[in-house]
Amino acid sequence: MKRTALAGIAALTMALSACGGSSGPTSAASSAPTPTGTVTIEFWHAQTDPTDKVMQQLVNSFNASHPHIAVQASSGGTSTGDLLPKVTTAIAAGTYPDVAYIYGSYAANIAQSGKTANLASRVNEPGFNWNDFYPASRQIASPGGKVIGFPALIDNLSVIYNKKLFAAAGVPAPSPNWTWDEFRAIAKRMTDPAKHIYGVNYPIGGDLLDTSWRFFPGLWQRGGQILSPDYKQALFNSQAGVANLTLWQQMATVDKSVYLDPTAEKAEPLFTSGHLAMFVSGPWEVPTLNEAGVQWADVQLPAVSGNHQTVSGPDTWVVFNHSPARVNAAVEFLKWLTAPQQELVWMLGSGSLPVRPSILQLPGYQRYLQKYPGIGPMAANLVNAKEAMPTLPQWPRVVDALGTGIASSLLGKAEPKTALDQAAQKSDAILNVPG
Amino acid sequence: MTGEQALLPVPEVDMAVHRARIEEAGRRMRRSGWRRHLPRRGHLALLPLSIIMVLPFVWMVLTSFMTDSEINRIPPTIWPHRLYTGGYSTVLASSDFPYWFLNSLIVSGAAVIAQLVLCSLAGYAFARIQFRGSTVMLLLLLATALIPFQLTVIPTFVIFHDIGLINTLGALIVPQLTSALGIYLMYSFFQSFPRELEEAGRIDGCSRLQVFWKIVLPLARPALAALGIITFIYAWNDLFWPLIAITSSRTFTVQVGLTTFQGEHATDWSELMAGTVLTTAPVLLVFLVGQRRFVQAITGAVKG
Could you tell me if B260 lies within 8 Å of chain A, comparing CB atoms? Predict the structure, then answer.
């Protein structure tokens, strides 16, 4: 919900950017006193306590080892969500930083501003190991064919389950090779209205991106697509999409095994309190689950024909174009920051998943697994994040239309096909208006 | 009463009647004072409403003394099992909260002082000084209150960037030095202010500024208190502009600082609630101290 509100403000400021009266790309970085020949860049990382300290240590290391570049780091404002309206205002005013953390879903909107650098010709140079980043995060960083930055974060959805509840119900732990039919049967068995225990969760309110992106794995696994390749037509109402939504709708309305989360924030306390057997969520829950002392484990999503494809919501370090020298400095900094060794330091401090598969081979990776118990299967599940969500300016409005349709179907107010057809019709109208 | 009149003998019988009247008035006052404290029928309706209003504050305070596990428990924990103060110690020791609090005090304090001076001067001028176009100017001024700040944020940002105030407290103070609402509030008050008092001052030889300073302002205290409270609460609670204008953590105000306890997926509820309690306290204090004058001014009960 918070993200949606901020997104509205961001969209407004983006829309107003044309009348921003930009006084040229100036920022604190350009006016800062620096030694002769040193290029100063401004870096908005959007980290808050305690991860901002880890990021500052990394920046200090870079500055110490790269005397010709001075990175001025700050959160840029506050958290990742709050940074968005700030960046869009700065773009409109011409005071944008050199590097900023941007949600993947807004990469296309930011790219549309015309202030981002295009690194397409740079990232394939030797030393970048661009193909070492997971494919979904590379796609998100490349809206409209341009490469606007480097992958900053990647996550994915898996099924977290309460081992104690499963043992008490005499239900064996889910097998990694499970199917959606098995998933449905387990959810039904675990549901116990007398004890207020639900089989599984599905968010239907708050941020509708959350409602939509849980729908995509089942769609992709059945061979469906979200949009046409030219982003002009919604395809999620295909047979694959209807079959996928029908499964969830039957679980919600017939089996009554789904907790329909109205705010997308209730499932976590339900799970930690022993009232939710399976929690479809991601690595961001690990610290909370371990702190709450829940006996949990996680397993990859169920499969269709052995395909366990999941969805990922990668975020990006976007590089803004002030001058060639500053873009070069920003690229050198990000190349260093996203290298496996530095990424491992960041992962140890923040609990984030690896953005590159090669990090899993580093000797220090075992320390990461020990520090964050249970995160290993989530990191391994990244190989199932084969596809990225579309990156286009209209995307936030498309997911709103789709999320509304999914919610109405799960609430039993519309048949899956009708709900998806209506959402597709709305989406088509949105897609055919320039973003 | 002149000195000569005071020396005249007072008849004995009148004094007795006078004393009786005073005693009766005292009895009446005591009775009405007692009645004032008795619950009336209206309180039966107000009591549940006040509980609804107070409940979120009580919940906030209780939550600030719970661990995150307790906060996230279902069914919800109503009363903390033990008084957990980790949220407060984290907020006060591990974050820049003291800086944020001080910054908010500076910004809100400066805004209050500036608005009291500038809005009362402008409001008095509109109410008392006839000049060509004064009505149009007042209407234009009021019209600015109808424009949402979100629409003017980019030009505002550009101006403040160009004058080098972005990421300083000056960027937060300057836009709040005066306000259309404040000028209109003071204008309304001075419109209903008795002219005779000012005319008496002018006859005694005061200049217009002296009349304003020595006669009008002392009697305008309820309106000034209301303006001060409104300005303080607005400046203290403002989030959007400080979020846009400030980049460094130590220059944040409390409202911006509080958002750092909310992440993309997770929220430190214990710390967020502890910070919110500490942030809400000054606003409550200001309102409780000045509420009578605030209500007087808003309801238009003050006539000088």
Answer: yes
